[in-house]
Specification:
With 502 residues, this protein is mainly α. Helix content is 74%, strand content 0%. It has 22 helices and no strands. Helix 2 crosses helix 5 and helix 11 packs across helix 16.
């Protein structure tokens, strides 16, 4: 058995075509990170952070779109490019056909752009206002932004670039739509052809090593520095040079395209309400499986997320950095390898037989997205007044009543946001779910991804529009839940808790 396990050890050093795939994947990830970061800097670092969802509708919508799966963006932009081509032919204009790596780069940039904008926005909100006010006494607003805000935002900018690179380098759905092969797809193909999980593991190690290095170099500084966002500041764009104004307008156009092209294209591509209803009716079994899987994954994730959040809150700074790194390492693992690992672990005689049941896609979602739920709950826990939590723990009542009446109500916004985030991400997950979903079952995301290759444009658009609506509902509940804490703080509600500043 051991000799068979290590028979594919030669895959550890990719050569020839596989080496070229690895290089292309790295270049693609770097290009997508740069493409996302440039507009994100102009949008996120100068955006309003006033309390209230109405204060910055474009930013709020971008945050909602952060959970939209890449293949929905891919389908939308394919339809949009077809419309532009038809318009050019009708007007007798020269038509430039763009595809391959250019289209892959553009669609991935639009897919992960909201994530970059959100992190930059968070980093800008974490810059102490007193430092910017001191700079404003001596110089103009743009110089303060350039010499105070941006340097202090470096951890957030690095984290945004690093996470976007990780997402791009571990995604194979968008390159597949444009007939381009990347390294994660090679891992899936190797396992599909040989059925050998160890071969897939050795093959994936070079990519995992690259993503872990990126994570350590770019994402760790933000975790180590910590942040205390101030959402009450409203930063205005004034005293900016002309080039900045034009760059800012271009970033707003980019953000608007990111939002409205998928919405409008899916509405037009579905044809009519009847087509949408027929598509939803035809996929009702997959919709039921998706909602059940998302609900179970969301509910189960809250227990370990709550325990991990309290542990991170109470451990020392050095231990916290180590545990945060270990917690977030799964984000650097290609999704197909996660699915292969789950199959390898559970496809054997065990006292608890999980293989062949819906527990497998639930576990795939937990393995992939639990770190993000932990971060959401822990971040909310950080914003609560520690003295308030300590006072609750000193109440002379049973542990059950202390948690039910005191601690859980304080944590409710973070728990609701964590549940909704897990549900939204699970609904759109394909990379690991397609490997572990048992025969006879399928999720809505898998049905959409399979139909994308058969040319059923109207049916796919109708299903994508329905899936998009579900994800946006969960995302809106998550954002509104966290935003309610900021609103309560501004109104002086003592039960909302207040951020503790050392």
């Amino acid at each position: 058995m051991i000799s068979n396990d290590f028979s594919s050890f030669s895959l550890l050093m990719p050569s020839g075509r596989r080496a070229l795939l690895l290089v292309n994947t790295l270049i693609l990830g770097l290009s997508v990170a740069v493409g996302c970061l440039l507009p994100a800097v102009f949008l996120g670092s100068t955006a309003s952070r006033s309390v209230g969802l109405h204060s910055q509708p474009l930013m709020v919508l971008l945050l909602l779109f952060a959970a939209i799966p890449p293949y929905i963006h891919g389908l939308s932009w394919i339809g949009f490019s077809d419309w532009l081509r038809s318009l050019g032919e009708a007007l007798s204009l020269p038509v430039v056909s763009v595809g391959g790596w250019v289209s892959t780069l553009w669609v991935q940039t639009m897919s992960w752009g909201p994530l970059a904008v959100g992190l930059v926005w968070l980093g800008a909100a974490s810059v102490p206002r007193v430092l910017k006010d001191a700079g404003r006494l001596m110089t103009d607003e743009h110089t303060v932004w350039q010499r105070v805000t941006l340097p202090l935002m470096k951890p957030a900018l690095a984290a945004a670039a690093g996470l976007v690179m990780l997402m791009s380098m571990t995604d194979y759905m968008i390159p597949t739509l444009f007939q381009k092969s990347v390294y994660p797809l090679e891992i899936f193909a190797e396992y599909s052809a040989s059925g050998n999980p160890y071969g897939a593991f050795w093959l994936s190690l070079p990519l995992i090593a690259a993503t872990v290095v990126i994570f350590l170099r770019l994402c760790s500084p933000m975790l180590a520095s910590g942040w205390q966002p101030d959402y009450r500041e409203d930063e205005q764009i004034r005293d900016r040079p002309a080039w900045f104004q034009w760059a800012h307008r271009g970033a707003w156009i980019w953000g608007s395209l990111l939002l409205f092209v998928p919405l409008i294209q899916l509405l037009l591509g579905s044809g009519s309400l009847r087509v949408i209803l027929d598509s939803v009716a035809a996929g009702r079994n997959e919709i039921s499986v998706s909602l059940l899987t998302a609900g179970l994954a969301g509910a189960i994730s809250l227990v370990p997320a709550l325990g991990a959040a309290f542990y991170l809150q109470r451990c020392s700074r050095q231990k916290r950095q180590i545990w945060l790194f270990l917690l977030l390492v799964p984000l650097a693992v290609p999704p197909p390898l996660m699915g292969i690992g789950l199959v390898t672990i559970w496809n054997r005689p065990l006292p608890l037989d999980m293989y062949g049941s819906l527990a497998m896609p639930v576990m795939a979602a937990l393995v992939r997205f639990l770190p993000l739920v932990v971060l959401v709950v822990w971040t909310h826990l950080q914003r609560l007044d520690r003295k308030l939590l300590e006072a609750v723990e000193l109440l002379p009542v049973s542990t059950y009543r202390r948690w039910r009446k005191g601690i859980l109500p304080l944590l409710k916004p973070g728990l609701v946001a964590g549940f909704c985030l897990m549900a939204a991400l699970t609904l759109g997950e394909v990379g690991a779910t397609v490997v572990v979903t048992p025969p006879g079952y399928s999720t809505l995301a898998i049905r959409i991804f399979n139909l994308l290759h058969y040319g059923a444009r109207e049916a796919v658009a109708g299903l994508c529009l329905f899936l998009l609506s579900l994800i946006l509902i969960f995302s809106a509940i998550a954002v509104a839940s966290l935003q309610s804490v900021n609103t309560a703080k501004q109104k002086g509600d003592p039960h909302a808790g207040s951020a503790s500043h050392p």
